[in-house]
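Reminder: ligand-aware prediction takes two inputs, not one.
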Amino acid sequence: MPNSMKPKILVTKHLYPEAIDFLRERVEVEYHDSDEGYPPDELLDHLRDKLGVVSQLTDKFPAAVMGALPNLKVISNVAVGFDNIDIPAATARKILVTNTPEVLTDTTADFAFTLLLATARRVVEGDAYLRSGQWRQWRIDLLCGYDAHHRTLGLVGLGRIGQAVARRARGFSMRILYYDAISAPSHVERELGLEFVSLDTLLAESDFVSLHVPLLPETRHLIGAEQLARMKKTAILVNTSRGPVVDEAALAAALASGQIAGAGLDVYEREPEVDPGLLGLHNAVLAPHIASASIDTRTKMCLMAAENVVSALEGRRPPNLVNAELWPQA
Ligand code: GLV
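Here is what comes back for the chain with glyoxylic acid:
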């Protein structure tokens, strides 16, 4: 099909090339091949004549942006999270929103466990200690941390990623508590050996608390000073969900005062800014939002987003439609 007849889309930032090739065969692509992306006002200009956009979690789509784009039919986000998009506003304007679930579940769960172990076993501190030339000899109490095996893990949120973390925890013979808006079916609880508890019980009894909820008005600052105060002094918090689920300043204070023992974080309230209080702490392992960042998974996410946008523009139900009410089942 000549380009002039194909629907036009914008790809806001650099993507894996397999996805760009797939897109270019099917739609007319304006590709902003950079890591930075356009500033918000320029983004709007580049979107005016587009029917679709392949966006990333750093691109913001509030109601006002969508209101200025009457031609836009689909926003295909290259992420499982979609808190960068005002979903009710998209739905009201009949804009389809899609995400990239499942392909990143195991990779993200691996990374949550990586942060859990790295924090508990002080891997980053050990690396810094060795590189700075301080290591003189084996010592009985050198960099002793906490065991993960046979201890209690509390999962806040038991969606796909929470369940994948539970599978890993079983291999470490952990007791697994979980809290969610609704309990899991009993066969899932049995298969994964899970106990459904209140958030307060989870916080009080867990040695590790790992967050796996989406960012919603109800989950913003779900973990604040009050919740941190309920945790054990020996407990470790892991966050691979979204930064604003945790009150970052309260967390920095809790880590500094020894209210809790440590934190393994991949996400922050104002990325790429990190609370200065966290930066000086030895008991926080800080990663730059890379939980799904394996080459295989990021490639799959890009391809999935490409398929979603093309399906929508070819009149088929996109496989990963978030606002499913826009596509009533036959
Ligand atoms: C990453 O944070 C994602 O939502 O995929």
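Residues 251 and 288 are 17 Å apart (CA to CA). The pocket of glyoxylic acid is lined by residues 57, 79-81, 104, 292 (CB under 6 Å). We will return to this case in the review session.
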